[in-house]
TrEMBL record:
InterPro entries: Homeodomain-like_sf (IPR009057), HTH-type_TetR-like_transc_reg (IPR050109), HTH_TetR (IPR001647)
Protein name stated in the entry: Putative TetR family transcriptional regulator
GO molecular function term, any single one: transcription cis-regulatory region binding
Keywords associated with the record: DNA-binding, Transcription, Transcription regulation
DNA-binding annotation, residue ranges on this chain: 48-67
HTH tetR-type domain boundaries: 25-85
Length: 216
Protein backbone atom coordinates (compact mmCIF):
# COMPACT_ATOMS: atom_id res chain seq x y z
CA UNK A 1 0.00 0.00 0.00
CA UNK A 2 1.33 3.52 -0.70
CA UNK A 3 2.35 5.58 2.30
CA UNK A 4 -0.13 8.50 2.55
CA UNK A 5 2.48 10.53 4.41
CA UNK A 6 5.00 10.24 1.60
CA UNK A 7 5.51 13.41 -0.43
CA UNK A 8 3.86 13.52 -3.84
CA UNK A 9 6.25 13.02 -6.73
CA UNK A 10 7.34 16.23 -8.42
CA UNK A 11 5.84 16.51 -11.91
CA UNK A 12 8.47 16.17 -14.59
CA UNK A 13 8.50 18.68 -17.40
CA UNK A 14 9.19 17.56 -20.96
CA UNK A 15 12.90 17.54 -21.67
CA UNK A 16 14.20 20.11 -24.10
CA UNK A 17 15.67 18.71 -27.30
CA UNK A 18 19.37 17.95 -27.05
CA UNK A 19 21.94 19.80 -29.11
CA UNK A 20 22.20 16.80 -31.42
CA UNK A 21 18.44 16.70 -31.90
CA UNK A 22 18.32 20.42 -32.64
CA UNK A 23 21.10 20.06 -35.20
CA UNK A 24 19.29 17.17 -36.87
CA UNK A 25 16.07 19.17 -36.99
CA UNK A 26 17.90 22.16 -38.47
CA UNK A 27 19.55 19.99 -41.13
CA UNK A 28 16.22 18.39 -41.99
CA UNK A 29 14.60 21.80 -42.32
CA UNK A 30 17.37 23.14 -44.56
CA UNK A 31 17.05 20.11 -46.84
CA UNK A 32 13.28 20.60 -46.94
CA UNK A 33 13.61 24.28 -47.84
CA UNK A 34 16.11 23.48 -50.59
CA UNK A 35 13.78 20.82 -51.98
CA UNK A 36 10.84 23.23 -51.95
CA UNK A 37 12.79 25.89 -53.82
CA UNK A 38 13.95 23.44 -56.47
CA UNK A 39 10.53 21.86 -56.97
CA UNK A 40 8.96 25.32 -57.25
CA UNK A 41 11.56 26.47 -59.77
CA UNK A 42 12.15 23.34 -61.85
CA UNK A 43 9.20 21.06 -61.17
CA UNK A 44 9.30 17.48 -59.94
CA UNK A 45 10.83 15.94 -63.05
CA UNK A 46 13.51 18.62 -63.22
CA UNK A 47 14.74 18.03 -59.67
CA UNK A 48 16.82 15.13 -58.38
CA UNK A 49 17.86 14.04 -54.91
CA UNK A 50 21.41 14.97 -55.91
CA UNK A 51 20.24 18.52 -56.73
CA UNK A 52 18.56 18.85 -53.35
CA UNK A 53 21.59 17.51 -51.47
CA UNK A 54 23.97 19.82 -53.31
CA UNK A 55 21.75 22.90 -52.81
CA UNK A 56 21.32 22.22 -49.10
CA UNK A 57 25.05 21.58 -48.62
CA UNK A 58 24.88 17.94 -47.55
CA UNK A 59 26.06 14.70 -49.07
CA UNK A 60 23.67 12.43 -50.92
CA UNK A 61 24.21 9.86 -48.18
CA UNK A 62 23.10 12.41 -45.57
CA UNK A 63 20.05 13.25 -47.67
CA UNK A 64 18.94 9.62 -47.70
CA UNK A 65 19.56 9.37 -43.98
CA UNK A 66 16.73 11.87 -43.50
CA UNK A 67 14.44 11.17 -46.45
CA UNK A 68 13.49 8.07 -48.41
CA UNK A 69 12.70 9.91 -51.66
CA UNK A 70 13.13 13.38 -53.13
CA UNK A 71 9.41 14.03 -52.68
CA UNK A 72 9.53 13.12 -48.98
CA UNK A 73 11.98 15.98 -48.48
CA UNK A 74 9.24 18.61 -48.70
CA UNK A 75 7.05 16.98 -46.02
CA UNK A 76 8.53 18.97 -43.08
CA UNK A 77 7.88 22.27 -44.82
CA UNK A 78 4.32 21.37 -45.76
CA UNK A 79 3.66 20.01 -42.29
CA UNK A 80 4.94 23.22 -40.69
CA UNK A 81 1.97 25.18 -42.01
CA UNK A 82 -0.51 22.71 -40.54
CA UNK A 83 1.41 22.64 -37.25
CA UNK A 84 1.26 26.43 -36.91
CA UNK A 85 -2.47 26.46 -37.64
CA UNK A 86 -3.23 23.75 -35.09
CA UNK A 87 -1.06 25.42 -32.44
CA UNK A 88 -2.91 28.71 -32.95
CA UNK A 89 -6.22 26.87 -32.73
CA UNK A 90 -5.15 25.12 -29.52
CA UNK A 91 -4.23 28.50 -27.99
CA UNK A 92 -7.77 29.85 -28.49
CA UNK A 93 -9.18 31.62 -25.44
CA UNK A 94 -11.72 29.52 -23.49
CA UNK A 95 -15.31 30.22 -24.46
CA UNK A 96 -14.52 31.25 -28.05
CA UNK A 97 -17.12 29.85 -30.48
CA UNK A 98 -15.54 27.01 -32.49
CA UNK A 99 -16.22 28.61 -35.86
CA UNK A 100 -14.64 31.87 -34.72
CA UNK A 101 -11.63 29.94 -33.46
CA UNK A 102 -11.26 28.17 -36.80
CA UNK A 103 -11.60 31.38 -38.80
CA UNK A 104 -9.16 33.36 -36.64
CA UNK A 105 -6.51 30.64 -36.47
CA UNK A 106 -6.70 29.91 -40.20
CA UNK A 107 -6.37 33.58 -41.08
CA UNK A 108 -3.45 34.07 -38.71
CA UNK A 109 -1.57 31.04 -40.03
CA UNK A 110 -2.04 32.06 -43.68
CA UNK A 111 -1.31 35.77 -43.31
CA UNK A 112 2.08 36.59 -44.84
CA UNK A 113 4.70 37.84 -42.43
CA UNK A 114 8.23 39.14 -43.00
CA UNK A 115 10.88 36.48 -43.46
CA UNK A 116 10.39 32.76 -43.86
CA UNK A 117 6.62 32.75 -43.25
CA UNK A 118 6.00 34.81 -46.37
CA UNK A 119 8.50 32.78 -48.38
CA UNK A 120 6.88 29.52 -47.28
CA UNK A 121 3.61 30.54 -48.91
CA UNK A 122 5.40 31.15 -52.21
CA UNK A 123 7.18 27.79 -52.01
CA UNK A 124 3.93 26.05 -51.12
CA UNK A 125 2.30 27.55 -54.20
CA UNK A 126 5.15 26.26 -56.37
CA UNK A 127 4.94 22.81 -54.82
CA UNK A 128 1.19 22.56 -55.32
CA UNK A 129 1.54 23.60 -58.94
CA UNK A 130 4.16 20.89 -59.45
CA UNK A 131 1.98 18.16 -57.94
CA UNK A 132 -0.16 17.28 -60.99
CA UNK A 133 2.99 15.99 -62.68
CA UNK A 134 4.21 13.91 -59.75
CA UNK A 135 1.94 11.38 -57.98
CA UNK A 136 4.59 10.88 -55.28
CA UNK A 137 4.47 14.58 -54.45
CA UNK A 138 0.67 14.40 -54.19
CA UNK A 139 1.03 11.44 -51.83
CA UNK A 140 3.22 13.54 -49.53
CA UNK A 141 0.66 16.36 -49.53
CA UNK A 142 -2.20 14.03 -48.65
CA UNK A 143 -0.13 12.25 -46.01
CA UNK A 144 0.62 15.59 -44.36
CA UNK A 145 -3.09 16.39 -44.25
CA UNK A 146 -3.94 12.94 -42.94
CA UNK A 147 -1.60 13.60 -40.01
CA UNK A 148 -3.01 17.11 -39.54
CA UNK A 149 -6.54 15.71 -39.36
CA UNK A 150 -5.50 13.35 -36.56
CA UNK A 151 -3.84 16.22 -34.68
CA UNK A 152 -6.98 18.37 -35.07
CA UNK A 153 -9.29 15.91 -33.34
CA UNK A 154 -8.27 16.50 -29.70
CA UNK A 155 -7.99 20.26 -30.27
CA UNK A 156 -11.47 20.55 -31.78
CA UNK A 157 -12.82 18.17 -29.14
CA UNK A 158 -11.55 20.55 -26.46
CA UNK A 159 -13.23 23.51 -28.16
CA UNK A 160 -16.56 21.76 -28.66
CA UNK A 161 -16.80 19.37 -25.72
CA UNK A 162 -16.97 16.37 -28.04
CA UNK A 163 -15.23 13.06 -27.41
CA UNK A 164 -11.91 13.19 -29.25
CA UNK A 165 -12.39 9.77 -30.89
CA UNK A 166 -16.13 10.06 -31.33
CA UNK A 167 -17.84 10.21 -34.70
CA UNK A 168 -18.70 13.92 -34.41
CA UNK A 169 -15.15 14.99 -33.58
CA UNK A 170 -13.73 12.86 -36.39
CA UNK A 171 -16.17 14.37 -38.88
CA UNK A 172 -15.45 17.89 -37.65
CA UNK A 173 -11.70 17.40 -37.92
CA UNK A 174 -12.06 15.95 -41.43
CA UNK A 175 -14.26 18.86 -42.52
CA UNK A 176 -12.00 21.52 -41.03
CA UNK A 177 -8.88 19.97 -42.50
CA UNK A 178 -10.52 19.65 -45.92
CA UNK A 179 -11.68 23.28 -45.84
CA UNK A 180 -8.14 24.44 -45.14
CA UNK A 181 -6.65 22.17 -47.81
CA UNK A 182 -9.13 23.28 -50.47
CA UNK A 183 -8.48 26.93 -49.61
CA UNK A 184 -4.71 26.55 -50.01
CA UNK A 185 -5.02 24.49 -53.20
CA UNK A 186 -7.46 27.00 -54.75
CA UNK A 187 -5.16 29.87 -53.85
CA UNK A 188 -2.12 28.10 -55.29
CA UNK A 189 -3.88 27.44 -58.59
CA UNK A 190 -4.79 31.09 -59.11
CA UNK A 191 -2.59 34.12 -59.78
CA UNK A 192 -3.67 35.94 -56.64
CA UNK A 193 -1.50 37.65 -54.01
CA UNK A 194 -0.42 35.79 -50.84
CA UNK A 195 -3.05 37.66 -48.82
CA UNK A 196 -5.78 35.86 -50.80
CA UNK A 197 -4.95 32.55 -49.11
CA UNK A 198 -6.37 33.75 -45.79
CA UNK A 199 -9.46 35.16 -47.52
CA UNK A 200 -10.10 31.83 -49.24
CA UNK A 201 -9.77 29.96 -45.95
CA UNK A 202 -12.35 32.30 -44.46
CA UNK A 203 -14.66 31.59 -47.40
CA UNK A 204 -14.29 27.80 -47.25
CA UNK A 205 -15.00 27.63 -43.52
CA UNK A 206 -18.04 29.92 -43.77
CA UNK A 207 -19.51 27.99 -46.72
CA UNK A 208 -18.92 24.68 -44.99
CA UNK A 209 -20.58 25.90 -41.81
CA UNK A 210 -23.32 27.85 -43.59
CA UNK A 211 -26.21 25.55 -42.64
CA UNK A 212 -25.05 25.63 -39.00
CA UNK A 213 -24.81 29.40 -38.66
CA UNK A 214 -27.61 31.38 -37.01
CA UNK A 215 -29.57 33.69 -39.31
CA UNK A 216 -27.88 37.05 -39.91
Amino acid sequence: MPDPSAPSPTPTSPQSPSLTERRKAATQQEISLAAARLFAEHGAEGTTAEDIARTSGVSLRTFYRYFRTKEDAVAPLLAEGSRQWIELLAATAPGTPPLTALLDSARASLTPAPGRAAESLAWTRGLLRAMPDDPALRDVWHRVHHDAEAALRPVLAGLTGLAAEGLEARLLAAAANTAMRVAVESWAAADTPPTAAADLADTTFRRLAGPLLPPA
